[in-house]
Write a structure and sequence with these properties.
- The chain is mostly helical.
- It is built from 3 helices and no strands.
- The longest helix has 24 residues.
- It starts with 14 loop residues before the first helix and ends with a helix.
- Helix content is 71%, strand content 0%.
- The relative contact order is 0.05.
């Protein structure tokens, strides 16, 4: 018989239909996270740049430069 719906499984009840539904739900949930990793990398990069800038400012000071120079001289001194 053509069009007999009593023998056909209900739509979405087959294994393939269930898998499609699961995949669709996962895709919808993950769509909101799209770009999150890129944003996290950007924030981490900006924090690293800020920290590097702070180190440059600190290391340009005369006192720190003197301490580092003395440290290198002591390390290179033999005996």
């Amino acid at each position: 018989m053509h069009g007999d719906s009593s023998t056909a499984p209900p739509r979405g009840r087959t294994r393939r239909g269930r898998r499609r539904g699961i995949v669709r739900r996962i895709a919808v949930r993950l769509a909101g996270e799209r770009g999150a990793a890129t944003a996290e990398y950007a924030v981490a990069t900006m924090a690293a740049v800020g920290f590097a800038g702070l180190l440059v400012i600190i290391l340009r000071g005369d006192e720190v430069r003197g301490i580092l120079t003395d440290l290198v001289r002591n390390a290179l001194t033999v005996g």
